[in-house]
């Protein structure tokens, strides 16, 4: 598969605002979370922001990789599971955080470990939406989200270059 046609670039500022908006939504649920489980690596950044906003200091990781060559999803590899103490009662009271859900496969894998946990991510594509309880912004399935930690400054061709006008 090649990169989807549409690009949704996200700056650090925008990501911070959107992750904070996610924290506001989660605060609005009126639920006390006993811990955050972040899905590495993408979940580390929103987890830092949400843990600060919601004053959650117990942070655990579940380490999963699936997009081995950036755009193409392969087999999911579970590199590190979740501590058994947090998986008691199906993960009730635990907040699972990721940067985005795309096909929903990653979230479903973690849901099998903690069916009663609350799943949150900043961005969602339609296929992944049913796997998530709370998110901020939906983008179409044929959009690629460019996160600031994957980006650098590069030269951009002028729009007019190559056009007949
Ligand atoms: O809904 P899905 O189709 O499963 O895709 C979403 C997952 O893909 C990305 O992680 P990736 O596996 O690329 O690893 P990374 O977080 O280390 O970049 C992203 O951070 C999500 O965790
Ligand atoms: Mg990830």
From TrEMBL:
Q: Which SUPFAM superfamilies match?
A: PRTase-like (SSF53271)
Q: What positions does the entry give for GMP binding?
A: 102-106, 144-145
Q: State the needed cofactors, names only.
A: Mg(2+)
| Highest taxon in the source lineage | Bacteria
Record pathway? Purine metabolism; XMP biosynthesis via salvage pathway; XMP from xanthine: step 1/1; Purine metabolism; GMP biosynthesis via salvage pathway; GMP from guanine: step 1/1
Enzyme Commission code? 2.4.2.22
| Presence of the UniProt keyword Ribosomal protein in the record | no
Domain (Phosphoribosyltransferase): residue spans on this chain: 11-154
Instruction: Provide the binding site for 5-phospho-alpha-D-ribose 1-diphosphate.
Output: 41-42, 98-106
Q: According to the UniProt record, what class of enzyme is this?
A: transferase
Per the record, membrane topology reads: Peripheral membrane protein
Q: Which Pfam families match?
A: Pribosyltran (PF00156)
Q: Which InterPro entries match?
A: PRTase-like, PRTase_dom, Xanthine_Guanine_PRibTrfase
Q: What positions does the entry give for Mg(2+) binding? A: 99
**Known catalytic reactions:** GMP + diphosphate = guanine + 5-phospho-alpha-D-ribose 1-diphosphate; XMP + diphosphate = xanthine + 5-phospho-alpha-D-ribose 1-diphosphate; IMP + diphosphate = hypoxanthine + 5-phospho-alpha-D-ribose 1-diphosphate
One of the entry's Gene Ontology molecular-function terms is: guanine phosphoribosyltransferase activity
The job of this chain, per UniProt, is described as:
Purine salvage pathway enzyme that catalyzes the transfer of the ribosyl-5-phosphate group from 5-phospho-alpha-D-ribose 1-diphosphate (PRPP) to the N9 position of the 6-oxopurines guanine and xanthine to form the corresponding ribonucleotides GMP (guanosine 5'-monophosphate) and XMP (xanthosine 5'-monophosphate), with the release of PPi. To a lesser extent, also acts on hypoxanthine.
The record's section on PANTHER family has: XANTHINE PHOSPHORIBOSYLTRANSFERASE, XANTHINE-GUANINE PHOSPHORIBOSYLTRANSFERASE
Family affiliation? Belongs to the purine/pyrimidine phosphoribosyltransferase family. XGPT subfamily.
Subunit structure, interactors included: Homotetramer.
- Recorded protein name is Xanthine-guanine phosphoribosyltransferase
State the organism named in the record: Rhizobium glycinendophyticum
């Amino acid at each position: 598969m090649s990169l989807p046609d549409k690009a949704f670039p996200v700056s650090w500022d925008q990501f911070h605002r959107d992750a904070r908006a996610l924290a506001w939504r989660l605060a609005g649920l009126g639920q006390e979370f006993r811990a955050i489980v972040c899905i590495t690596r993408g979940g580390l950044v929103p987890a830092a922001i949400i843990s600060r906003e919601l004053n959650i200091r117990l942070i655990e990781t579940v380490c999963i990789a699936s997009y081995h060559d950036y755009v193409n999803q392969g087999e999911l590899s579970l590199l590190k599971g979740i501590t058994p103490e947090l998986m008691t009662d199906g993960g009730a009271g635990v907040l699972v955080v990721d940067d985005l859900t795309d096909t929903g496969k990653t979230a479903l894998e973690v849901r099998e470990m903690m069916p009663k946990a609350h799943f949150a991510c900043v961005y969602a594509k339609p296929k992944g939406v049913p796997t998530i309880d709370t998110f901020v912004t939906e983008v179409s399935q044929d959009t690629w989200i460019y996160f600031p930690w994957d980006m650098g400054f590069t030269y951009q061709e002028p729009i007019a270059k190559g056009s007949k006008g």
